[in-house]
Amino acid sequence: KIIIPKNSILNPEYPAAVVAGNVETSQYIVDCLYGALGVLAASQGTMNNVTFGNEDCQYYETICGGAGASADFDGCDAVHTHMTNSRITDPEVLEWRFPVVLEEFCIRKNSGGNGKHHGGNGVIRKIRFLDSMTVSILSSHRLKPGFGLRGGLAGSTGHNSILRYNGDVVELGGCAEINMQAGDSLIIKTPGGGGYGYME
Question: Residues with Cβ < 8 Å from 5, sequence gap 6 or more?
């Protein structure tokens, strides 16, 4: 039996502030349930929601990360987990429709937690802007990593930053809104999944 107290994050009442239940809160719920049952280490725990746009165009994407490991398998690299079902836009389509260049999209090596079974690795996604835009980010696990289980280590936290056209770096939190100029790059490093079991 699951008991959800009233006025809690899972059973709020007006005028409680609520946002991102489907994209962020749901991730925590699934990780919590799997962790409590001891069957799966935490996955990246976020959808890494990114929007950008100006008066001429707007775009929204969610970015994959690492899946948690279990007693029987390693976590997958570079996947959406739990409540997500979106597919990222192909690079050619992204660059054709929007004034951006996808400079990097790769697996973030060693970001999954170690263990008998290794947590999945997150990704690095770097987008350079060719026009002025506003970027908004809604992401989690930037301060606290997804947990490992039964001796497995936690995955790496995510990281958001801006590389300005002049070389300056602006560090961003998990939730941020920032104005981009032509030549600026957004860099998202997504979290890794937790490992499972002690290393042998």
Answer: 11
